[in-house]
Write a structure and sequence with these properties.
Strand content: 15-25%
Order of helices and strands: HHEEHHHEEEHEEHHHEEEHHEHHEEH
Radius of gyration: 50 Å
Strand order of the largest sheet: 2-1-5-4-3
Largest sheet: 5 strands, antiparallel
Helix content: 40-55%
Structural class: alpha+beta
Shape: rod-shaped
Number of strands: 13
Amino acid sequence: MLSRIAQPMMSAATRIGLIYFVLASLWIWGSDWLAQALPMAWWGYVQSWKGQLFVVLTTVLLFLLVGREERRQAALLVLWQASEERWRFAIDGSDLGLWDWDVAHGTVLFSTHWKSMLGYAEADLGSALSEWESRVHPEDLPKALVDVQQLLEGKTLCYSNEHRMLCKDGQYKWILARGKVVQRDANGQPLRVIGTHTDLTELKQREATLELHAGVFMHSLEAIVICGPDKTIKSVNQALTEITGYGAQEVLGQEPSCIASGCDDLTSYSEMWRQVQKSGRWQGDIWNRRKNGEVFAEWLTVNVDRGPNAEIRHYYAIFSDITQRKQDEDRIRYLTQHDALTDLPNRTVLRDRLELALSQVQRQNEPLSVLFLDLDRFKNINDSLGPKVGDALLIEVGKRLRQAVREQDTVSRQGGDEFTLLLPQINADAAAHVAELAP
C-alpha cells in the first residue's frame, strides 16, 4: 500500500514540473511577442512588470497544484489507514498471529494474538527481531533462517516454514509461519515484510493420532478389511496378504467373497449380513480360501460405520487365522474321547452313544446288543513278557475288534484288558456270531 501511495506522489511531482515548464516557456515566448507588437514607448513598462507578473502567476499556479496533490495524498493516506485497520482487525479476529517486520530498522511489531499464542501478555515481549529468533527451537532455526533469507533475496515470493516455538510455560508449540515482502527500495532491497503465525498444535495432534492409527492398522497381526457402502474393498492391511496370500492390488475394488472358500453355505452368509444390518455387528468363525487354494478357518468380526443420518459409510472386517487353534481343539477333543493306547473310544464316548442308541431303540423298537469282553490271562502276559508286549497285545486286539464289526458299531476300551462293543440293530443271535469272530 505504501508503494501505491509513493508512486502517485512521484507522478504528481513530474506532472507539476511539466506544467510549470510548459507555462513558463509559453510566458517567455508570448510576452516577448506581445512586447514587440506594442509601441517602443511601452517596452520599458512591459519589461519591468513581466517578471513580477510571472512570479505571481506561477506562485498561484504552484499553490493550487500542490494543494490539490496534498488533498489527494491525504485522501489516499486515509484510505490506506482504513484498509490497514480493517486488515489488522480481520487478522486479530482470526486465529492468526500477525507480525510486521521493519527490515531497515530491525524491529518487528507482534500482534496481541501472536503473543498470546505463546502464552505471553502484551507487555511481555518487545519489538526486537530476537524475540522471535530466540524462541525458535534450535533444531528448526537454521531452516527457518534460510527460508527467510531466500524471501529477502527475492528467490521466493512467499515465506512458509513450520517450526517449534518456545512458550512461556517452557513447552514448545508447532507454528506455521508465512510472510511476504510488501515494500522494497529503488535498489530492490526489502524494507517491510508482513506475515502471520498459525498454531498447528491441534493439527499436529491429529496427524500424530492418524499416524498412530495407521501404524496399528498396517502392523496389526489381524487382517483388516475396509469396505465401502457397496461392499467393495477400499483398503486392506499387510496382515491380509500374510494370511491369504493376496496382495492389496488384487483385492481392492473386489467384494470380500473373492476369497470365500465355498465351504460355508449361502444361508450362513445371508444370516451374517442380516445380523450386520440389524445390529451393526457380527462375530463368528467361517472358512476362507488362500490364494494357493488352501482352505483355512478364520475368526471374523464385522462392524458397520454409520454417518450422522444413519447412512452406511463403511464396513470394517477384522479376522485372524484360527486354523491351528481349531486343529488343536479338535486334537484335544479327540484325546479326551479316545483311549491313548488303542485309539478306541473311551467310556465317555461309549456312554453318549449308548444313550443315543437306547433312545432310538425306544422310538423305533429296534434291537441293540452290548458285548463286554476281557482277555484271559492278560496279567500273566503283562507280568512275564513286560508292559510293552502287553500294550502291543491290547493295540492288536483293538484293531481286530474294529475289523470284526461294522462302521456304525462302537468298539470301546474301558480300561485294563476290558473292551465293550455297542452294536445297534443287532439282535442276540447276531451278537453271538460277532463274539465268535472276535479274537
